[in-house]
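Technical annex, item 7. During the second reporting period the consortium partners agreed on a shared format for inverse folding records so that results from different sites could be compared directly. Each record opens with the tokenized structure and is followed by the designed sequence. A conforming record, contributed by the partner at site C, is shown below for reference.
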């Protein structure tokens, strides 16, 4: 499984990424591990906002790319309502291949 996620930073910005091991990746972001993203190295991670699960890296990367094209206010709406994924991307990607999930971070 692969995961596409949106992470809120202390400055209220939103970082979007993908991971195969979501708990490991969040630990890297939150603790600024040497493998964290350049962005979260300079913008302290605050909260994991939303996660979508999919079967492979290609699908996760497609969703990540599309999420990064959204404006900030659209990302904020999507965080509040996962059903907007279909509204924003239905004609561009098969949104049925992405399952929103809850993650209990373990670190």
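Designed sequence (site C submission):
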């Amino acid at each position: 499984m692969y995961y596409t996620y949106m992470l809120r930073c202390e400055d209220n910005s939103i970082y979007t990424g993908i991971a195969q091991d979501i708990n490991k990746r969040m630990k890297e972001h939150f603790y600024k591990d040497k493998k964290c993203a350049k962005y979260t190295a300079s913008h302290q991670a605050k909260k994991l906002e939303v996660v979508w699960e999919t079967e492979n890296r290609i699908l996760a990367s497609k969703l990540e790319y599309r999420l990064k094209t959204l404006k900030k206010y659209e990302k904020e709406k999507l965080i509040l309502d996962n059903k907007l994924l279909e509204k924003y991307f239905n004609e561009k990607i098969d949104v049925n291949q992405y399952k929103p999930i809850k993650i209990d971070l373990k670190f």
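The first strand starts at residue 2 and ends at 9. Strands lie at 2-9, 14-19, 45-54, 99-101. All partners now use this format for quarterly exchanges.
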